[in-house]
Structure formats: structure tokens, C-alpha cells
Specification:
- The protein is an alpha+beta fold.
- The chain is built from eight helices and ten strands.
- The strands form three sheets. The chain has a five-stranded mixed β-sheet with strand order 4-3-5-10-6, covered by helices on one side.
- Strand 1 and strand 2 form a beta hairpin.
Length: 283
């Protein structure tokens, strides 16, 4: 059994859906299905029950999932220890204004426990580059939010957060339990500087062109709301200043927390980081 095939199996077993697993692995579904069939032939047991209702694990599949996870984690640790012994165990992580996120704090603690010999360097970035300097080669991996242009990148979703509108406490809409984007259609919002990723800009503007002050950082956006009464945006759970209120938006897609890295980067630390991050952000 190859490690790559085991990674394929783990993805299918965790997603319980070939299409979602293929998307997660950045491959098409037919070769993934063939790889799982070949794995079942090599092992001599059916690992997955396939039906119109979906995919479920057989007892053999459940046993293999546990062993495969342990084996893949061990393989990642081996790569990291070799890198540490070779003096190359350094990882630069770009973080997009969410260093106070409990998931990020859990990740830092878990990563230190797993890889105490790795030096982690943090690059805190503003809202103008959702890849946190990844394309410019300034970081090895980005702990950020989508959506953005994913060309040439591997992007692994860690969590999805509902989003709310940030309003001044004396704003008439601040008393509402929830809002729709149409409720904010005639309001001034905020904009990112020219040249910012258009997918990123469109998401935080609710899919519409907006007028308003240009901001580069979270605090600039919040201060624009406080001083000018504009509309800000934030994932729910991020509490702003006392003079500001967050009202949930019912028709805006959740904000995806992701880990992203260059898809051809051979750095052995990346996959381990993504694996630990998945557990930290979902616990």
C-alpha cells in the first residue's frame, strides 16, 4: 500500500462522499474511485459500502481508517524529524488578522507539542492580500479566509463561520435580530485598495459594488463604522468595541477559514500543519 493511496482512502472515509473527497484532494472523481477499488483488491476486503444513499464504512474500512490515520501521522512525523536533523525545520505562517481566534491558539499549542523542534515564524498580514504573502514567497503556508483566487494553491478548509454586519449601536438596524443583504443595499460600506483579489473584495461586499472608505486592516474597518456609520462585516463570534453591534446576516455565505500553500511545495512540514490545524479548528 502506498501512502498516497491511504491518503485517498482517508479522505473518502472522512467525507463519506467521493465527490467531496475528490474536491478535497484536488483531483477528479474517476481516478479516485479506481484507486479505492485497487486498494480493496490489494487488501482483499470491501472497505466501503456504496449505494444511492451515499457511502458508509464496512468493519474492514473502519479498522483501516484508524490504522491509516496513525500511519500517515507517523510518516509526517518522520519527515519533520528528518528536516529538523538536517537543520531545515523552519515554517513561516501567514495569519490574516485572526491571531486571537481560539482555533489559532489551539493550533499553536498542539503544533508545539507535536513538533517541538520546529521554529515557527509568524507573519501577520492585512486585508489587502488574503494569501498572506504566499504568492510572493513571503510565507510557507497561510492561515486565512476565503474566497480568493486558488490557482496554483492547495486550499484546505478548516471551518466555516456565519457572518454578520457590524453597525454602530445607535444605528436603527442595530436593534434587529437578523438582517438580509437587501436591508443594507442603500448604505455605504467599505472597500479594499485597487488591485485586491476581486473574489475576496466581492465576498466582503456582499456580491455587489459598494461605495465607502478604503480600508486595509480590521481595525480600520471598525473605526470607519464607529466614526462614519458605514457598514462593516465580521465573522460571528468576533466581538467588536462596545459602541458597535454585530447583527447576523441570513443570506450571506459563511466565511471559510482555510490553510493554503503552493501546491508543488515539497516542504514536509506543510501536510502535518494542515492535519493538526484541522483538528484544532474543529474541536
Amino acid at each position: 500500500m502506498e501512502l498516497r493511496t491511504l491518503r485517498y482512502f482517508v479522505a473518502v472515509a472522512e467525507e463519506l462522499h467521493f465527490g467531496r473527497a475528490a474536491t478535497r484532494l484536488h483531483m477528479s472523481q474517476p481516478p479516485l474511485s479506481r484507486a479505492i477499488r485497487q486498494l480493496e483488491t490489494e487488501i482483499g476486503a470491501v472497505l466501503l459500502n456504496r449505494s444511492a444513499a451515499g457511502v458508509t464504512l464496512t468493519p474492514a474500512g473502519t479498522a483501516l481508517l484508524e490504522e491509516a490515520r496513525a500511519l500517515l501521522a507517523r510518516a509526517d512525523r518522520v519527515r519533520v524529524r528528518v528536516a529538523a536533523a538536517a537543520g531545515t525545520a523552519t515554517l513561516t505562517v501567514g495569519i490574516l488578522g485572526d491571531s486571537t481566534d481560539p482555533g489559532a491558539r489551539r493550533l499553536a499549542a498542539a503544533y508545539r507539542r507535536r513538533h517541538p523542534g520546529v521554529e515557527v515564524r509568524i507573519r501577520d498580514t492585512d486585508l489587502t492580500d488574503p494569501t498572506c504573502g504566499l504568492r510572493a514567497g513571503l510565507v510557507d503556508i497561510a492561515l486565512t479566509r476565503g474566497p480568493f483566487d486558488e490557482t496554483g494553491l492547495t486550499v484546505h478548509e478548516l471551518r466555516a463561520d456565519p457572518v454578520g454586519a457590524v453597525l454602530r449601536a445607535d444605528d436603527p438596524l442595530a436593534r434587529r435580530d437578523r438582517l438580509r443583504l437587501a436591508d443594507l443595499a442603500d448604505r455605504r460600506w467599505f472597500r479594499f485598495p485597487d488591485g485586491t483579489d476581486p473574489l475576496w473584495q466581492a465576498y466582503w461586499n456582499g456580491g455587489e459594488p459598494r461605495e465607502g472608505p478604503v480600508v486595509r486592516a480590521v481595525q480600520e474597518c471598525l473605526q470607519a463604522v464607529l466614526w462614519n456609520g458605514t457598514v462593516g462585516m465580521t465573522p460571528l463570534g468576533h466581538e467588536p468595541l462596545g459602541e458597535l453591534v454585530v447583527v447576523p446576516l441570513t443570506d450571506m455565505a459563511p466565511s471559510r477559514v482555510v490553510a493554503a500553500w503552493n501546491e508543488n511545495d515539497p516542504n514536509p512540514l506543510l501536510r502535518s500543519f494542515a492535519h493538526i490545524a484541522t483538528a484544532a479548528y474543529r474541536s
